[in-house]
Amino acid sequence: MSPDFKKLPISAVMVIYNEEKVLERALKSFCDVVEEIIIVHDGKCTDKSLEIARKYTDKVFELEHVGVAEKHRPFTYKKAKNDWILQVDADEYLSRELKNNLEKMISDKVDVYEASYSIYPHQYFSHKRILFKKSRVYLLGFTHESIMPLDDKVKIRRIKSRMMHEPLYDNFSFRVFQKKFKPWAKIHAKILLQDFRDISKWNCALTKWDARRRLLIRYPLLLGMMAATVFKGVSYIRLFLYHRKVSMLKVGINACMYSFCLYYYVSKYKRKNQSQSIRTGI
Description:
- This protein is α/β, with parallel strands linked by helices.
- It folds into 2 domains: 158 residues, CATH 3.90.550.10; 103 residues, no CATH class.
- It contains 8 helices and 11 strands.
- Helix 6 packs across helix 7 and helix 7 packs antiparallel against helix 8.
- The relative contact order is 0.12.
């Protein structure tokens, strides 16, 4: 018999896009232990995702289609009534251990929890920030950005409990890279070239990109396509040598391809913007 759970003062937030095949698995893993569930659909839904979502919550929103989840995350934080946020993607779900530990976790003097996480199927070498106090973090809402501590007093704890990550496809095949990661790189590049004031944010006092990103945007070919890509490659080679798992090389190749594409598009869009400015006399 499964244990009875009491509703905890946690708001679970999700940003989804046509996820009917995995959404219910995620929702079932935490619906009976959180006070509130907030779900944002990225654009018009063309499958049964919204129908499934509304079985678990009435706080379901369809926002403009962006193509990435991060832009919508600040909206979910604003809608949340609780300070504690449980952030879950549709292809993730809470392990039994993680679910059982939630009550103790929010009672400890910790602001952010990093759960054990699998980038590559069933290999839990990574960690992901999945439970946090929204008052103690900030977020820049652009591709692949995670919540960050508001100051050096924020207490972050890494735990062994797993946030299960099981997509129904091979995230690191060339076909998926072309269909998923390459479009993400294009969106990412356009956001990097936006006016910083127009970027979706949560609790963020920054007024411009950090120095590293400014350099990468200024020199996308030299520092982005070349230096940043090489740095990622070396990082994953080190991980491979440490863990002795071929999967690390596969993940690393994907990361290098993404980095290369990202800064290729930054360079391409910069040239396009400059050409348009010259033609319009700006």
